Amino acid sequence: MNARKALLSCAAAAVVVALAGASAQSADKKTIALVYGIKGDAFYVTMEKGAKAKAAELGVDLIADGPSQWNPAIQTPIVDAMIARKVDGLIAVPNDPQAMIPALQRANDAGIPIVTTDQYIGDGDYAKGSVTFPLSYVASDNFGGGKLACETLIKGMGGKGTLYVLVSTPNVPSDVARRDGCLEAVKAAGDGVKLAGVDYTQSNATIATTQTQAALQKDPTIGAIFGGNLFSAQGASAAVKTANLAGAVKIASFDAPEQAIDDLRNKVVDIVIAQQPALIGATAVQYIVDALNGKTADIPKKLATPFVVITRENVDSPEAQAAIYKSE
Question: How far apart are CA 306 and CA 328, in angstroms?
Answer without folding.
Answer: 23
